[in-house]
Amino acid sequence: MVRSSSLLLGTLLLALGCGSAAAISRYESNTLSCPEARSLVQREGAVIFRFQSQRVSGLPLYDRFVVNSSFCASGEETVPKAVPTRSGSCTLLVCRPFVDEDFFGFSR
């Protein structure tokens, strides 16, 4: 009984350790220059940037920025989005649901 409990505990600790390794990094975008922000996304593949709303004073916003569409879920595509940085606005990629405009009779 002691051996099976030890094995279970070891497996649980290993699983928890693996889960934290896949955690996504979070950064304040206004503390970074645009090249620094781009470099973080390039190096990590996906990061979350926190920034202040330009429309509502004091409202913090978050978004997940990715290096390419392989970091998006099925049914999503990458689209450009500007994020405020220390050196001004910086355009990076975010994942958004794919909208088939042909389905609605529109064309791109």
What does this structure look like?
Helix content is about 30%, strand content about 35%. The chain is of the alpha+beta class and about 110 residues long. The N and C termini lie far apart (about 65 Å). About 10% of the residues have low confidence. The chain has one domain. It has 2 helices and 5 strands. The protein has a 5-stranded mixed sheet with strand order 1-2-3-5-4, covered by helices on one side. The longest helix has 20 residues. Strand 1, helix 2 and strand 2 form a beta-alpha-beta unit. The radius of gyration is 19 Å and the shape is globular.
Briefly, what is this?
It contains 2 helices and 5 strands, in the order αβαββββ.
Oligomer: single chain
Report the mean per-residue pLDDT as an integer.
83
* Distance between the ends: 64 Å
Order of helices and strands: HEHEEEE
Pick out the low-confidence regions: 11-21
Itemize the secondary structure elements and their pairings.
Elements: H1 2-21, E1 25-28, H2 34-44, E2 46-52, E3 60-66, E4 76-85, E5 88-97
Primary descriptors:
about 110 residues, alpha+beta, five-stranded mixed β-sheet, 2 helices, 5 strands
